């Protein structure tokens, strides 16, 4: 398939990323994760127009709006992906993914709306589960945490169900 | 120093996510539609390496585990809700940033949505604490602890299971 032409084997990239994860735990004592950063980011944004909420809501007191290891890790992902894409000629500005376009057309607004709503629902679920595919899926399952396997099963069960609803019969 | 390590780790991880081609909506939906298991290959390869490395270093006393508590209600219900949103957005929190890095700008709407979702959750948290968070709260437990066996036995079984899953995926041409 065409996709194999430009990338690395997912086994190689995945295994190397596993080494990065082990190195991070060893050197910095940090496990990979991403979704807590969105709480901190939301808190930073809300401080601008609803400082009272940030100062009183228990969840913002628990996950304070500060820039920490994970915040930089998440920003680093964007930078690393940019470097890799630019270096290999893989960078391409695209507003509507191919699979989405084939099913729902090339409307930018519809795709943006779905991404926004899906993102909001996904983040609500990730915070309730206390992690996303990085924190639970990778770090949790690697540590044999029961929570990681439970949440991971939920991620795929919900995802497969939604994909069925959206792409029924396609 | 923490911040510098965070940035460096993120750059390496983002580079590998991009090279593994797992940042795209098409790949994430490919897995959820059971048509293309690239992201599953990436995730299981990551877990297999990290599982052995982390427990080896832990046995040597060089690292500490950082387990998330198992609360069946919150983990399972939150996981399901995440999944429903994930099937719609096609990016997860980590890959959304990486997707922007390789030019997939619909991920900006995803990131905006995720920030709003986090804000909504911050408001729901107080109401969830006495309910969902008390359903099946077992604390920080591992598969090895629950089964009462050595962790290397669990790791060996999982390694074999993951290899068999991946072999099956390859045979099916997914």
UniProtKB/TrEMBL annotation, chain A:
Q: Where does it localize?
A: Cell inner membrane
Enumerate the transmembrane spans: 12-29, 69-87, 108-126, 146-167
Q: What's its membrane topology?
A: Multi-pass membrane protein
Which UniProt key words apply to this protein? Answer: Cell inner membrane, Cell membrane, Membrane, Transmembrane, Transmembrane helix, Transport
- Please indicate if the UniProt record lists Transmembrane helix as a keyword: yes
Q: Which domain of life is it from?
A: Bacteria
Which is one Pfam family of this protein?
Sulf_transp
Keyword Transmembrane helix set for record: yes
**Any single GO CC term annotated in Swiss-Prot or TrEMBL for this entry:** plasma membrane
The family this protein is said to belong to: Belongs to the TsuA/YedE (TC 9.B.102) family.
**This protein is called what?**
YeeE/YedE family protein (DUF395)
Native source organism of the sequence: Solidesulfovibrio magneticus str. Maddingley MBC34
